[in-house]
Structures are given as C-alpha cells and as structure tokens.
User: Fold these one by one.
Assistant:
Number 1:
Amino acid sequence: MDWVLLSLLSAVAFTVLTIVQKRALERHINGAVVFNGVAALPQVVVAAVILLLTPPDWTSTAVVIMLAAGVVQATVWLLQGYAINREADISRIVPVLDSHPLLVLIIAVMVLGEALTPLKWVAVLMVSAGAITASWHQALPGECIRLNRSFFAVLGAAVAMAVVTVLFKVASADLTVVQMVGLAWMVSAPIHLIIARVTHSGREMRKVLGSRDAMRMLSATQLAFVVAIFSGTLALTLGPVSLATAIMGTRPVMLLLWVVISGFSVRDALRHRPEHGGMRNKWASASLVTVGVAVMAF
C-alpha cells in the first residue's frame, strides 16, 4: 500500500514545514504576506517549466478544476500563515488545521458519493472535539486562540484545505501529479505576488532575499513543501481520498513528539499542574484528532 507510506511522508513533511515556518516568521520574516511572496518566486518558475515540458489539455475540465484549486491553495497559505504569525504556540493551531479530514469526508460524501458509516460518524465527532479542545480551552499557556480571528483563520484554512484535497482527487483522473502541481502553482504563486505588491511588501521581501538566515529557513520550508505536496498528491491519486487524508491528518501527534524531543518530558506533559495544565489538553486534543482520523481509515 504505497499510498499509505506516501501519506505518512506528506504528514511528516508538513509538520516540518509548520515548525520551520513558525520560526522563520518569529525571527526573520515580517508576516505571512512577505513569506508567501518570497516563496512564490521559485514556484512561478517551476510551474512554467513543468507546463512547458508536460503541457496538459488546456480545454479539459480537469485544467479548470486545478486552476480553481490554485486559488483555494493560495487562500490556505494566507490563512495558515496569518494564524501561525499571530499565535505563539503552533501546537494549538495544528490540531484545528488538521481537522480537515472530517471536512474531506463530508465533501466526499456529498460530491464523490462515498458512503459514510456510523463508525466514521463517530470519528467525525472525535476530530471535532479535538479541534474544539485545542482552540477553545482558556487554560492553555501562551496567547489563547479561543473564538477570535486566529481561530476563524485556521478554521477557514482547514475548510480550504479540504476543498483543495477533493479538487486534486477529481482532477487526478485526467492529469498527472506533476501537471496538477504545476497548474495549481501557476495560479497560487502569482496571487501571492499580487498581494505582496498591493500591500507594498516589496521592501520586506528584498530584506528576506538579502538575509542568509532567512533564505536558509525559507528554503527549508520550500523543500518540505515540495516533498509534502508531491507525496500527498500522489497518495491521493493512488488511494481513497478519505483514507489518505485521514493519515495526513496525524500531524498533531507528530508535532507533540517534536515538543517532547525539544525539551518536554512525557511525564511533565501529562502531569497535572495548574500552571502547566494546558499540556494535558494539548495531548487530549491531539489524541482525539489522531484516533478520529485513524478510525476514518478503517
């Protein structure tokens, strides 16, 4: 089952991307618009090369679908970057973002005609509970997301990600993985550049391009993004969209493993202390999401 391994690879790559993007925004890059604008520069070139070497049938419906996916994909990055830039603790954001498998499941039922079993409905409730636990609990350390703009931004990103996933799956019947990525980037990258232009972010972008540390971190995010997008897209073409997406939604636990490795012990993470009680909620949230998406896969 190659699509399972590809889905796991995509989840790992997206986890790395989220962590490095957060650090880049904290230390070197002033905002998501600047980050996405600089990242869009190589994507425009890569998209042009892909479509010149492997041109699709420009009159096909699949091309129109992927152009729409590019617009939605740009929306994902803008909303995700906005939330990551505003919130101090990305382990609060990722569980909400990775609740998108339940949205994919609902869209798949409505659009693709997939059957929804009672067990999968239980999974939907578990993932929803995990997302609410991560974003609403006021005892978590750091700036609380709750029901503010960051929460709605990351929730919007989850919805947009689910739509992109279904669009990729529909288009995969007529396009190769490389063509789908090229078409999506052909639209999403110019959108980021236009937004950067409209917001007068050119000076900040030039600062990033002139900073070795900033470019090193941005290059790392782009490498992780390439691995994530190609492996994830290939997984969607080889396996069921709901199952592949469920596996890709295990980022919360991967992120928590990173938290543990980078300085927290499991005992401290699970120990109930008034000042650190939020760690228990993080683990509970990530566990609910991960168990939920695992139930979706079986």
Note: DSSP finds 14 helices and no strands in the chain.
Number 2:
Amino acid sequence: MKGHCLTPERQESTPAAPLRIDVQRALKLFLFTLVVPVTAAFVLDQVAKTLPILTMAAVVICIPLATVMVNRAVLGDLDRIFAIVAPELPLEEEQAPTTTGADPGLPLEVDSLS
C-alpha cells in the first residue's frame, strides 16, 4: 500500500503522505517538550543542590505543554485522514426541496396535517 493515495485538495490519485498518524512527529514533540526539559531541570537541580525546586517547576510547566502539543499534532493528523477518507457531505440547504413549503425532515403525510 505504498505510493499513491488521495489528498483533500485534489481528489485524484497522487503520491502523498500515507493514511497514517505521524508517530515520529508526535514522538519528537514529546521528547522536546517533556523529556529534554525535565531531564535538564533535574540535572541543574543536581548541580545546584536544590533537588526538588527546578524539577517541580519543569514538571508543572512541561507536562501540560507536552500534552497539548502532542494531542494537537495527533488530532491534526487524524483530521487530515478523516478529510481524505470521508469528505464532508453537502449541506441540506443546497439540496432542492421536494415540494414548496414542505419541511424536508418530515414525510409528506405528516407535513400536510399541520
């Protein structure tokens, strides 16, 4: 299944990104927003002999930041995949009504009773 897939801009077979979530990108975001800063804060705490202070500050800042960044990256990829696999349907206003003044959500028998 390597090679061609549909893109949302052009609905034709083109060489594009595969229909997968980019785990490598999410892993890079996780490493650079959580693992590296918390490790650096821990090392600085060890060097400065203030063990819990910098580590706690880094954890309080980096865990929510990493959560938001990684979730946005994964959900963005998921949204891209949804746009390719299941494009949006046209709105009901664009469809022509069957009879004038009839409610398109009701059968004709029920609509004529009101």
Note: The longest helix spans residues 51-85.
